[in-house]
Amino acid sequence: MTLTLKINGQDHPLDIDPDTPLLWALRDNLGLTGTKYGCGIGQCGACTVHIDGQAVRSCAMPVDACAGQSVTTIEALSTDRSHAVQRAWIEGQVPQCGYCQSGMIMAAVALLKENPKPSDADIDAAITNLCRCGTYPRVRAAIKAAAGIAA
Amino acid sequence: MGKMELSRRGFLSLSAGTGLTLGFGVLPALGASAPGFGPWIRIAPDGMVTALTNVSDIGQGTNSALAQAVAEELAVPLASVRMEMAPVETAFHNKSIGNYAVYGSIGLRTNLRPLRLAAAGARQMLAEAAATRFGVPVDQVAMRDGQALHAASGRSLAYTDLLADAAKLSPPAEPKLTPRTEWKVLGQPLPRQDIPAKVDGSIVYGLDVRLPGMLTAVVTHAPTFGGTLISVDEAPALAVRGVRKVVRLPGALAVVGDGYWPAAKGLAALSPQWGPGPNAGIDSDGLSRQLRDAAMAGKGYSFPGSEMPGTNVTATAQAMAGAAHIVDTLFEVPFLAHATMEPMHCTIQLRADGAEIWLSTQTQSDTQAGVAKVLGLDPEKVKVNATPVGGGFGRRLEHDFAMQAAYLIKALAADGVTVPVKMVWPRETDMRAGYYRPAVASRVRLALGADGMPTGLRCDNANPSLLEHTGLTISAGRSEGDWSVGMGIVQQSYAIPALHLTWTRVDPGVPVGFWRSVGASQNGLFLEMTIDRAARHVGVDPVDYRRRLLTGKDRARTFLDKLANAAGWGRSLPAGHALGFAMGQANNSISGHVVELSVPEPGKFRLHRIWAAIDPGVTANPKAVEAQMMGGTIFGLSAALAGEITLKDGMVEQSNFDSYPLATLAQVPPMEVLVIGNNTAAGGVGEEGVPSIAPAIANALFALTGKPITRLPLTRAGWAMV
Ligand code: FES
Ligand code: FES
Questions:
Q1: Per-residue burial over B371-394, b = 16 or more CB atoms within 10 Å of its CB, e = otherwise
Q2: What pLDDT digit, counting tens, does each position of B75-88 carry?
Q3: Which atom of ligand 1 is nearest to the CA of A48?
Q4: In CATH, what is the architecture of A84-146?
Q5: Which residues have CB under 6 Å of ligand 2?
Q6: Record: contact B60-A96, CB cut-off 8 A
């Protein structure tokens, strides 16, 4: 079956099964490997993308449920790492291995869009992504830096 | 030192006898026209410096620190130094381990000095070449930012103009290293080079590798370790659109498809019949009893002093016999999975005369040998492309998954498939595939003399041996006993006059291996809980007690004082709050934690703050050290809170992050990291954050309740964090 996904501002007709999770359409069909697989069951957030601006775990989102909506991946956050969150991430030297960080950044961007000055409790509630390398303290500090809140 | 050290390590080519003109085509991999300084460092005509490394990027920042070292010693801008993975060839093995791998926090420890020497040697040769061109003595030539300068005449020459001349010179016998007091780049908290590609999705991990025409294979294993496939009806998988093949592998089953999803869907459609194998009867309760009984019996292999420094069996027995008091505790810890965020995988392609693989690994040469063996090739016929790694923690010291990919491609080749295949373990397969931190029971007895201070320590361990299971080639050789049970117990600075360790092998057939900080991951709790019990018995503050145990051990005592001061040890605390302290030594580093917690209701505790401290000797980049320490702390916290792999009827009960929970951002309280650098021998930083966080928490709970923690995870000891 052919369906059309709008990814990073472009329409992509894809001939795939409608139950294919968005994650695998992105990675395998479109070559957008910045979005990561970590668990496949919506637990880790490594696969976080934006659908119409909201953070969504793409491993648990079948492609037919995204038709007509606008999907943004880490690759399209900026063309030159200039998004405020990316800059805060570099400035705060957040990543270790980096594998979870696409998802972390996408979750952080969505949080700040909805809540430009999040409290610690807001950050706790919104950033449920898992990081095995333990970057959480720098993630928290970088979100605050991007929000212009003194740490 | 000097000539010997350099030539042995091969960082600079020194001898004309090798038939090489220094710096020109030193190794085929560098190309015949690349002027440079031995195989590890080359300078391109545009001034870019490339230094090779055999340290995988697993997020630890070692290569960025090594780049700082090259920039410092060669006197070039950091921006012009690029680190590149060395080819997986014998010439580029880590000489101190005889292998191409990184583990045990060796990355910086073993590479910093040789690379500094190589860079410093190159700088001196360039300086000599410049002196000749200027017609002045070499001590009048200053080297800065890739330029040789003669201040008196105002002349300067770029390194790139000096390469040809310098390459004709002999390398200095003893390159002069830049003294620490003059470091401008090394030792600074500079941005890591790997970070930018990690914020825009552009970095390509092993799991992201894509090759033309590639298929994807998704694998599941027999549900019991050692189980075998009896039968499977392939039809339901082959009926899934995009599925190409079903492949039977040793103890496993793979479905090959056009992408991950079709293959995973095909695999889920199958109902394989598995034979249980020899280990189907195992469950965690029974294993726990076996481990505890064996530890209590204490009849295992008795380590001699040659294997466990400080051992004195007779003196330990005498200490026990004459003790005023014995702190006697039976401890137990479970199997733990590494749970790297990027699951195991390997992409493989057969070539006319060999094979090529792409994967995230910590152990290139063993992987190469393992794959070659399966395919019946010489190791050098297997080209290993080691990508950046999405977490290692010891799991990627194994190469079981790479060998599985080799079996897979062999079977597919026999079936006419010629394209490359990316083999992927879904999270569930990864979680259940073993090489866990061993489950361990240990009876720990600390004899105290009349003065309340230790007179002898005996530890009777029972556990499966990771040395028997691991696929890692250990150059150190194996004793009859599993030496990993001594890590974190031996070579501590505490004044404990006599030691006796035993090990009883209890092996339920579950593969076990190296897990970040290895034996210290359990011994941190065993020893530090024991010390706090002793202090409490004699009525001394636990930090004061340790201070006495560290009399005359200046480095460790300074460390203890700095950590205790940072945490305000001894200050008055809010009602119901307590501090807990723990420390330890490994890999030539000292590390420790203080936590502040409270118990709002029975069985529940709240963590208010963590202070972590490390003395790694040389600090190549304090910011990277801080990050490693934080990461290790949180890794240890996950294990302390709820981490365990358990078995029922031989099957692993956990499968994904819902049943093997990791600490979350919300659970991690404010944390301060103290980086203390006080000498010049580089110690490890990768593992040091792990061992002492659990005992710091346990000791704080003990301070509040008087009940020792003898089991991890804390959920098993009746504690949940809120
Ligand atoms: S891969 Fe989607 S939440 Fe983990
Ligand atoms: S940076 Fe490695 S998992 Fe988060």
A1: bbebbebebebbebebbbbbbbbb
A2: 999 999 999 998 99
A3: 2
A4: Orthogonal Bundle (1.10)
A5: A 95-101, 131-133, 135; B 59, 341, 391
A6: yes
